[in-house]
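Exercise (ungraded).
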Amino acid sequence: AQSVTQPDIHITVSEGASLELRCNYSYGATPYLFWYVQSPGQGLQLLLKYFSGDTLVQGIKGFEAEFKRSQSSFNLRKPSVHWSDAAEYFCAVNDMRFGAGTRLTVKP
Amino acid sequence: EAGVAQSPRYKIIEKRQSVAFWCNPISGHATLYWYQQILGQGPKLLIQFQNNGVVDDSQLPKDRFSAERLKGVDSTLKIQPAKLEDSAVYLCASSLGLGQGQYFGPGTRLTVT
């Protein structure tokens, strides 16, 4: 069975601070892994994806994610958060199973 | 390039009524998905099409939900009869294929009263 866990429901960071959103998955083989962002009133947008190769993948808007097989994790990071990054972030496995999401609030 | 189109954007119906949602995927995308997103939750896959064939409909409540993708392009999702718990945003997405990432439409917000 496939499942995705995003342990943090809500995270607040200050603008300019670094960000890490956690994602853990359960799957028997190497999964396809994705991060999506959903801004208020907007549709879901693909940030980045991973299947094989370099375990550190770069995405749009300055985001990156690191795949760690030993920890079954695919955490999303950004070195310096901007106010426009405030949104809901979803991790997904194999195109079809989404986590519950992490809501990011950015303090001025 | 045009994105995924969905209509209507909003719909309010009474319980036991029927409703239909329409989706037009990105041109050339063979894979089409319908999701249900309840407020505060992640999207839940209802059905996945590859061209006009069903790949996965294990989470589709088949006693009331139906979906079709005629000619492997547009798709329609229907609910009949609707229940209060069907209130949600219904998202359509399309993809070039497994592992390519999905492109989502704006969604249809359904309210069942």
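Further reading is listed at the end of the chapter. For now, observe: The mean pLDDT of chain A is 94. Chain A touches chain B at residues 4, 32, 34, 36, 42-46, 49, 51, 90, 94-101 (CB under 8 Å).
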